[in-house]
Prior knowledge:
The chain has helices at about 5-15, 25-30, 40-45, 60-70, 75-90, 120-125, 165-175, 185-195, 205-220, 235-240, 250-255, 270-284, and strands spanning about 20, 35-40, 50-55, 95-100, 105-110, 115-120, 140-145, 150-160, 175-180, 200, 225-230, 240-245, 260. The chain is built from 12 helices and 13 strands. Helix content is about 40%, strand content about 25%. The protein is an alpha/beta fold. Magnesium ion binds near residues 38, 41, 228 and 229.
Amino acid sequence: ATPVSILIATGSSARRGILFKEGSSLERLRQTDVILMDKTGTLTEGWPQLKEIHAYRGGGAYVLSRAAALAVRSAHPLAQAIVRAARDRGTLLPEVQQFHEWAGKGMEGHVEGSRVRVGNRKWLLEQGIHPDRHEDLPGHTRLYIALNGECVGSFVLNDKLRQDARKVVQVLKEKADVWMVTGDEEPAAAAVAAAAGIHQVRAEMLPEDKLAFIQELQGRGRKVAMIGDGINDAAALAAADVGLAMGGGTDAAKQAGDVVLIGNRLSSIIGAYTWSRLTMRNVH
Length: 284
Ligand code: ADP
Ligand code: MG
């Protein structure tokens, strides 16, 4: 028989900004005992601001124009922040050839004969490029720019915690074990997690690391909900017992998720949990 209450629940939940692609995810959501939360675009607004430019060579306008030339090709929130900053300054963007983006790492391309890389410290180190160590501003993210294998500058970006993040986390902790899983580096991850009230953090996670962590938890019999927004979250969203995608996120995430928070409100996840419990009470 058709579980009528599930149809009713999914129908009215869509009006509240939650889209369940199929009724069965409600049942699975009710059973989850771990929630993994992505940082950028999920716990944070996903609308970072470029706060500082450090140029070791060529000047601020020069390094910004090179970085923005690559960034305009990317959908990553950090890349988009660099583009906005360049537009605000009226920067002309040089042409880019052979653009390539590395999930969780950065992006590269050829600009006026030089190989330009923009990405995080760990990735540049992997490429044999040694960025200067900086004093980290708590909760801020730093990206580096390299020209022909030499680090020539860095950018400090800040993405605001969603205003309701702490409250949402507090409620979720009553329902399940809450973790933050992020591709960002340890100091930035730890500061945002602390502000959100999350005490379990995995940082510097590549897309495949997020996936492996879910499989490890499932191997121990845990039922996992994952909430994320990025291309880097798609594999994890698909593998989780229930994947929840932020409505403001990438198409890849929304396609991979079982549930889409179409209003892009983090608090909708609480609505989804409440819904899953109410519905099951009606079914049985
Ligand atoms: P999160 O899991 O927090 O959403 P991501 O996996 O999307 O983070 O990114 C992790 C890190 O990888 C970023 O903090 C950044 O350092 C780097 N990165 C990924 N894609 C890009 C890009 N297009 N431009 C610059 N940096 C990037
Ligand atoms: Mg993200």
